[in-house]
Amino acid sequence: MAPTTAISSDPGSASSSGIRTAIVPAAGLGTRFLPTTKAVPKELLPVVDTPGIEYVAGEAAEAGAKRLVIVVSPGKDAVARYFEPQPELEETLEQRGKTELLEKVRRAHGLLDVETAIQEEALGLGHAVSCAEPNLTPEDEAVAVLLPDDLVLPTGVLGRMARARARYGGTVLCAFDIPKEEISPYGVFDVADTDDPDVKKVNGMVEKPAPEDAPSTFAAAGRYLLDRAVFDALKRITPGAGGELQLTDAVALLIAEGHPVHVVVHRGGRHDLGNPGGFLRAAVDFALQHPEYGPDLREWLRGRVEE
Ligand code: G1P
């Protein structure tokens, strides 16, 4: 994926988005990070010093979400525990005058209210999202879904997606325009233009197509603003790609039934935290921008690469 150089947000991703609840599916076994994930969920692995899931929670909060429902598998409660206050640690840091560290420690639990939903069996992303339905309230007319493997940078795309939903209604997803030969791991959109070059109407969606079958080069990038109707569609889909209940297939079903679906094309960067190679790129990218570690790392990397 494209390297990124900025983690600041684009302005205008307002809390007037209407987004109240965000769902983060985090029930996977993290097999690509074994053996570490025997004991530590991959969502808690640090990108420099902060777990990936805190960036994703921060993005949801920035888009106006007040609640985060993390879907975990049994035994992965460490992910939710990360968002609980640690009064003893905070007191120690306070006594020692470690103000900056204290701020870092407090950030996660100050972002939004976190709760969990349990996915008992790994039946696919669509199934994981449906496990969060009991956590929703009647006011949740739409929910944001953020896949924690995907860092979409700069943040702010959810705000743009909310504006597209305000205009067109229905469901809005985030798309990246990527080379056709790299398209197979993704959900891919069949699109038609609107008057905005970065907003497209979706006429169909297919999960993990072969490059020659891909309807376009616009791929789903792990950010969804789903109309509540998706939960009904999720009950009616059957196992799809990989034998799993796919969120893509629920979206495709909504489209087939005449429900409006659009994508906002994000032309910024992205990191894939879902495999060690992508994770390392993200860590290096973030570390290079870090005031304390960046300058040394840059110099060391230059020398190391030339060796
Ligand atoms: C999931 C979705 C896919 C989407 C991708 C983005 O796939 O099913 O539609 O394009 O995330 O990262 P996964 O990466 O879980 O195989």
Helix content: 25-40%
| Strands, count | 13
Structural class: alpha/beta
The pLDDT mean sits at 94
Low-pLDDT runs of 5+ residues are 1-15
Bound small molecules, by name, code or SMILES, are: 1-O-phosphono-alpha-D-glucopyranose
Distance between the termini: 25 Å
Rounded to an integer in angstroms, the radius of gyration calculated over CA atoms is 19 Å
Strands of the biggest beta sheet: in what spatial order?
5-4-1-6-11-8-12-10-9
Number of helices: 10
**Sheet with the most strands, sense and barrel status:** 9 strands, mixed
Q: Note the overall shape.
A: globular
Tell me the strand percentage band: 15-25%
| SSE string, helices as H and strands as E | EEEHEHHHEHEEHEEEEHHEEHH
Task: Give a written overview of the molecule.
- There is one protein chain.
- The strands form three sheets. A nine-stranded mixed β-sheet has the order 5-4-1-6-11-8-12-10-9. Strands 2-3 form a two-stranded antiparallel sheet.
- The protein has ten helices and 13 strands.
- α9 crosses α10.
- A hairpin with a 5-residue loop joins β9 (187-193) and β10.
- The radius of gyration is 19 Å and the shape is globular.
- 32% of the residues lie in helices and 23% in strands.
- It is an alpha/beta fold.
- It has helices at 52-62, 78-81, 87-95, 99-111, 125-130, 157-168, 230-236, 247-256, 276-288, 294-306, and strands at residues 21-25, 46-47, 50-51, 67-72, 113-118, 142-146, 150-153, 171-177, 187-193, 199-207, 218-227, 261-265, 269-272.
- Residues 125, 147, 149-150, 185-187, 207, 219-222, 246-248 line the site of 1-O-phosphono-alpha-D-glucopyranose.
